[in-house]
Write a structure and sequence with these properties.
Keywords: Membrane, Transmembrane, Transmembrane helix. GO terms for molecular function: oxidoreductase activity, acting on paired donors, with oxidation of a pair of donors resulting in the reduction of molecular oxygen to two molecules of water. Pfam families: FA_desaturase (PF00487). This protein is mostly helical. It contains 19 helices and two strands. The longest helix is centred in the middle third of the chain and has 25 residues. The radius of gyration is 21 Å and the shape is globular.
C-alpha cells in the first residue's frame, strides 16, 4: 500500500485532523497496577540520583582534565571521546528525566541538573519542558508531537547527521539566537504559554553571553581547547543518545493511543543504561512517566505480562527496525506490530479505529509487519 502523506508540522492539516479525531490529549491505555504498588514505585529519593550525578560529573571532570593535560597530542583523543559521550549523550537523559522532576526528591536538585543538561544539549529549558510535555500527551501523534524522530518516510540522512549532532545542535544554536533577539519560533508559540515567553528569551540571552565568553577565550588563546570543553562535545558526543533514542519509537505505529504499539523497550548493557538513565525501558516510561528512572526495571517486571517482549539487545533492535525503515523509505505504508504475551490485555481497537474513524486507516493498515 502506498504511504499516506503526513504533515508533521504542528500548524498543518494533520494537527487539526488529530484534534478532530480525538487523538489530541486522548485517554491512553495503561496496565492495571494496584494503587499501593504504584504509589511505592512513584516514591522519589535523592540518594540514587545523587550517587549517579556525582559519578557523572566526576568522570567528566577527570576525562576533561586528562584531555587538557595531553592536548594537543592524539593521546588526548580517547579522553575527549569519553567526555563527549557524557556531555553530548548522558546529558540528554539527565535533561529528560530531570525535566520530569522524578530523579531527585529535592526539587531544586532536579532543576539544577536540568538547567546544566539543557545547556549542554542546547535545548532551552523552558521551551523543552513544554515540548516534552506535549510529546507525552500526544506521543507519535502526527501534527501534535514535536519530538518525532523517525518520520514517514524516514529522513535517514538527517538521522545520520544527528549522530554527529550536526542538525539538532545547530538548530538549537539557531533557536538560541532567535530567542535571544526577543522572538519565539512560530511552532514554539503553539505549545509555550504566553506567560513563559520572557523566560525563554532570558535563558537564551544568558546562553549567548556564556558562548561569547568561551569563544573569546578561544580567540585569545588561539586554540579550540575551550570549545572542546563547552560546545563541541554536543557534536562529537551525540552518537550514543541518537543511537538509543531512535529505538524509542522508530518503525512502530503512529496515531495510536496505546504505548505498547508505539514505544519499544530494549535490554541494554550497564554502561549504556547509565548513560541513558534506564530510558531503554521506554514502554514503561511512557505508560507511567512519574516513576523515577531507578525504579523502571522493577516496573518492567510488574507489567511485562501485559506488554510486548523487550528486544534483547541494541543490535537485535536495529535488525528489527532497519528493514521497516528501508521499506518506509520506498513509500510503503508499513510498520511493526508487537506480539503480546497470552497474559496481556489485547490492544483495544476502540482506542484507535473508533477514535480515528474513516480518516484513520493509516494507523491500522494491513501492512503492519509482526516483529520477529
Amino acid at each position: 500500500m502506498a504511504m499516506t502523506k503526513r504533515d508533521y508540522s504542528l500548524l498543518g492539516p494533520d494537527a487539526a485532523l488529530a484534534v478532530e479525531n480525538g487523538l489530541a490529549a486522548a485517554d491512553w491505555y495503561h496496565t492495571d497496577i494496584p494503587r499501593q504498588q504504584m504509589k511505592a514505585l512513584m516514591k522519589r529519593e535523592d540518594q540514587p540520583a545523587i550517587r549517579d550525578t556525582l559519578i557523572l560529573f566526576s568522570a567528566m571532570f577527570v576525562f576533561a582534565a586528562i584531555g587538557v593535560a595531553l592536548w594537543p597530542s592524539w593521546w588526548s583523543a580517547p579522553f575527549w571521546l569519553a567526555y563527549g559521550v557524557l556531555y553530548g549523550s548522558a546529558m540528554d537523559s539527565r535533561w529528560h528525566e530531570c525535566g520530569h522532576g522524578t530523579p531527585f526528591r529535592t526539587a531544586k536538585y532536579n532543576d539544577w541538573v536540568y538547567q546544566i543538561a539543557s545547556f549542554c544539549m542546547v535545548r532551552n529549558p523552558v521551551t523543552w519542558r513544554w515540548s516534552h510535555a506535549r510529546h507525552h500527551t500526544d506521543t507519535v501523534i502526527v501534527g501534535r508531537d514535536p519530538e518525532i524522530v523517525a518520520m514517514r518516510p524516514p529522513a535517514l540522512f538527517r538521522i545520520f547527521l544527528n549522530f554527529f549532532g550536526i542538525l539538532d545542535a545547530f538548530h538549537g544554536w539557531q533557536r538560541m539566537i532567535v530567542n535571544a533577539s526577543g522572538k519565539l519560533e512560530t511552532e514554539e508559540v503553539t505549545y509555550i504559554p504566553q506567560s513563559e515567553h520572557y523566560k525563554v528569551i532570558r535563558v537564551a540571552r544568558i546562553w549567548v553571553v556564556i558562548y561569547a565568553g568561551v569563544i573569546a577565550i578561544a580567540v585569545v588563546l588561539q586554540s579550540i581547547l575551550p570549545l572542546m570543553i563547552i560546545g563541541l562535545p554536543r557534536l562529537y558526543g551525540a552518537w550514543h543518545h541518537v543511537m538509543t533514542g531512535i529505538l524509542q519509537h522508530a518503525g512502530l505505529a503512529d496515531n495510536v493511543i496505546d504505548h505498547r504499539l508505539n514505544s519499544r523497550t530494549v535490554y541494554m548493557n550497564p554502561v549504556s543504561r547509565f548513560i541513558y538513565w534506564n530510558m531503554n525501558y521506554h514502554v514503561e516510561h511512557h505508560m507511567f512517566p512519574m516513576v523515577p528512572y531507578h525504579r523502571l526495571a522493577e516496573l518492567h517486571e510488574l507489567i511485562k505480562q501485559d506488554a510486548p517482549a523487550a528486544n534483547p539487545s541494541i543490535l537485535q533492535a536495529y535488525k528489527e527496525v532497519w528493514p521497516i525503515l528501508l521499506r518506509q523509505l520506498r513509500y510503503h505504508d508499513e510498520f511493526l506490530t508487537r506480539d503480546l504475551p497470552p497474559t496481556a490485555r489485547p490492544y483495544r481497537t476502540d482506542l484507535h479505529e473508533g477514535a480515528l474513524g474513516d480518516t484513520g486507516a493509516r494507523t491500522t493498515t494491513p501492512q503492519a509487519v509482526p516483529a520477529e
